[in-house]
Design goal:
Blueprint: E1 2-6, E2 9-13, H1 18-29, H2 33-40, H3 64-90, E3 98-102, H4 108-117, E4 120-125, H5 128-141, E5 147-151, E6 164-170, H6 178-188, E7 189-202, H7 211-220, H8 227-236, E8 239-246, H9 248-259, H10 269-277, E9 281-290
Parallel strand pairs: 3-4, 3-6, 4-5, 6-7
Antiparallel strand pairs: 1-2, 7-9, 8-9
The structure holds S-adenosyl-L-homocysteine.
């Protein structure tokens, strides 16, 4: 805590906002099967959605137990494909490079980047539990000297200026103000470094946030930004887009399969499908160069 003067009274300023405390509480308590059962398959824990064509034949498996297992494995394959799509855009990188994973969850993304590029990684999350879990996974893999997780605010990381060749947000930008976030990425990235974001955003051509987008905000305690906000905030913070990809069509098969996975649904599936189908919501990848 530090203090600030307001008139004659001294008001304490918390080091983390009440909102950030609530987000941390959410992720400290979170134990959804869709996040834990999928990760157990190969110890790559992803807390994001999937992309690509789904093998819907898993739904026809007659043995009920095997059917669940096959659906779980198929959803994990699609989530992993999303992580690979992002990691591919970070390159080229070498083992001498470090990368920064902003809002790292249980850590799967940094491991994927390390395995693909050999780079070192620093991940940050507001959740102490997630950081501990991810560090334990890195220890088990024997990569804890290269891949580290910290319980920190991605807007104020305290990590070294210009220390990173690449950085990203995988479904974590809806928790923060984009100008504050991109200023921190611009600080951490060296000149010529690469920034990548995959995010749900609301579609400016639809208008304002739809009912479905508002329901998603309430479900996750977040504030989804419009597509336009990303480009404005990047332009203001030395990040110049080099590749933009609308992944909306590519993520719908994941949601259609997940909707039918009784053992994994969280209750938000129909809302996501509705939002994508009525055009109010988009799943977007943006890669940018730090100039
Ligand atoms: N990128 C991960 C997890 C996405 S879930 C993945 O792809 O698997 C969203 C994550 O954002 C959570 O880990 C949450 O703790 C983190 N987060 C939200 N606001 C944050 C902030 N201000 N600083 C750091 N992490 C934050």
């Amino acid at each position: 805590m530090s203090s600030t003067e307001v008139g004659a009274t001294t008001v304490p300023v918390p080091s983390q906002s009440s909102y950030q405390n609530r987000v941390a509480d959410y992720w400290n308590a979170e134990e959804n099967p869709v996040n834990l059962e999928l990760g157990k398959i190969d110890d790559l824990y992803h807390h994001h959605y999937g992309v690509g064509a789904a093998d819907v034949s898993v739904l026809d498996e007659p043995d009920p137990e095997l059917r669940q297992e096959r659906i779980t494995a198929e959803l994990h394959r699609l989530e992993h494909a999303q992580a690979e799509l992002l990691a591919e855009r970070l390159g080229p990188l070498t083992p001498a490079d470090r990368v920064f994973d902003a809002g790292c969850g249980r850590g799967g993304g940094s491991v994927v980047a390390h395995l693909r590029h050999g780079c070192g990684a620093d991940g940050v999350t507001l959740s102490e539990k997630q950081a501990e879990f991810a560090n334990e996974q890195a220890r088990k893999r024997g990569i804890d000297d290269r891949v580290r997780y910290h319980c920190r605010n991605m807007l104020d990381t305290g990590l070294p200026t210009g220390g990173y060749a690449a950085s990203w947000n995988n479904e974590s930008t809806m928790y923060v103000e984009l100008d504050l976030l991109f200023a921190e990425h611009a600080r951490l990235l060296r000149r010529g470094g690469r920034y990548v974001v995959i995010t749900g955003c609301y579609n400016d051509t639809y208008g304002r946030a739809s009912r479905e987008v508002s329901l998603i905000n309430a479900h996750y305690i977040c504030d989804i930004h419009p597509r336009s906000a990303y480009f404005r905030a990047m332009a203001r913070n030395r990040l110049v887009p080099v590749h933009v990809e609308d992944l909306t069509a590519a993520t719908i098969p994941y949601w259609e399969l997940r909707q039918q996975a009784e053992h994994l649904v969280t209750g938000i599936e129909e809302t996501f499908l509705g939002a994508y189908r009525n055009g109010s919501f988009q799943y977007l990848l943006i890669a940018a160069d730090r100039v």
